[in-house]
Amino acid sequence: MTQVANRRATTPRNGAGRSPRKHVSVLIVGSGFAGLGAAIRLMKEGRDDFLVIERGSEVGGTWRDNTYPGAACDVPSHLYSYSFALNPNWSRSFSPQDEIQDYLRGVAATYQVADKHLFDTDVTLAAWDEPRTRWLVDTTNGNFSCDVLVSAVGALAEPSLPDIKGIENFRGEVFHSARWNHDAKLAGKRVALIGTGASAIQIGPAIAEDVAQLDVYQRTAPWVMPRHDRSYSTVESLAYKHIPLVQRAARNAIYWGREAYVLGFAFEPRILQVAQRVAERNIAKGIKDPELRAKVTPDWQIGCKRILISNTWYPMLARDHVDLVTDGIAEVRENAIVTADGTVREVDAIVLATGFHVTDSPTFQRIVGNDGRSLADVWDESGQQAYKGAAVAGFPNLLFVIGPNCGLGHSSMIYMIESHLNYLASALQTVEKNGIARFEVRPEAQESYNAKLQQQMQRTIWQTGGCASWYLDKHGNNTTLWPNFTFVFRQLTRRFDVAAYDTESISSRRNERISA
Ligand SMILES: Cc1cc2nc3c(=O)[nH]c(=O)nc-3n(C[C@H](O)[C@H](O)[C@H](O)COP(=O)(O)OP(=O)(O)OC[C@H]3O[C@@H](n4cnc5c(N)ncnc54)[C@H](O)[C@@H]3O)c2cc1C
Known about the structure:
single chain; 8-stranded mixed β-sheet; 33% helix; binds flavin-adenine dinucleotide; 5-stranded parallel β-sheet; 17% strand
């Protein structure tokens, strides 16, 4: 028995044995911006032999799942959208969730990729089958195999639930921000909002008006800048619609404005002091009480954690029926939260705005490479790392669309996703042109890429800014963010650099099989 087979025997497999394997050339897991973009790119390249498997019941990923009150993007929509599908009809600079989700549905319809999808299907295991040079993919809806596996499962797709003593005994509603319970009526209720990250600062102001009491539990205060949001006039929308160059110009202006942040994040953190002054003024404007001001003022440099934007967060915290609680939570009781100082606060509902499993996603356990070890096993030892965020040694014929060190703190993730789509398209062309059956990034190429990347990381504000954040893994390394200008990443991923990979041709693999 191969190691893969041993591994598979111990891993839960819902689809095992239910139906024969269906083979496709390329199998994409996930249909958010990344997986949907990959499907469209493959179609545009004239490829038909692929399948997208998505556990949700439609496209959208982040924007299908995060339906909490106030959900919206925090990068202007004219940049936070596909370059090949600009939308002149955005209603405002930072579009709300439902508008982005509608946009993604519309793009999927325009490019007619729906019938390439298998929805409501969870990939439970993807294991590399070395003898047959293919991935065996088990799902809750049957078994599949493919020559090339594309992981587009998203970095912020697995909600992280806090391990709080007694939370299972709570009698009221308790749910995560990314799994909002729309049946839970919060109006007139006492609500606890746990977390003060990007989701929490959108949720708080959106529900504060309706609830009887809002307790906001803060572990670390975020820096919050003003949100320059406005609705677009009819004239602007008409101009975007009829003179596409105007929209391209707007998009470019946003892109370069955002890119300027990289100078501060990655090269000269002192530049960010200007932003910090603006954020300090935002606090002073929203909050008069000196004690509350002190509580919301971070003790680390701006940029070290994600910079948030809101005009309503501080005024909301200053309201009479809103309390900012900074003592740690000791336990949850049937109807209350108890903090470390012994204070008992009764609540009817708890909203967990506690983020996502980023560097320890459960997905990593489900991808098993050529030595029978899962990505989780490999990355637990080394920290998550990949070559150009796309390929991992030991995992042949696997490409990520957005893997390690591809995240951004300042600009649109769609730009990074589209860079990886270039890499994917080029990889598939190279494989086809050269009759390659198996490609695996060389360990030394991956090592030297990451050594250089981590060297660049050392000078960034994320390492030097004096904070602990979800950007860092348990080894203290930042394996989530890209430490340079995004156009550098675009350049790096422009072509599949086959020299960094060990390859085997179709004919040599066939001969191997015959002689075995
Ligand atoms: C609330 C919120 C706001 C954000 N705002 C911004 C913003 O303003 N600007 C920005 O640049 N970025 C933002 N982001 C980051 C955002 O996640 C990315 O911009 C982008 O949407 C990621 O797309 P994706 O396709 O890589 O991942 P996702 O959108 O997460 O899609 C991954 C898909 O994979 C599916 N999947 C996962 N595992 C499996 C499996 N085992 N089997 C089958 N399917 C699976 C999931 O169901 C999901 O549909 C935000 C994130 C959140 C959570």
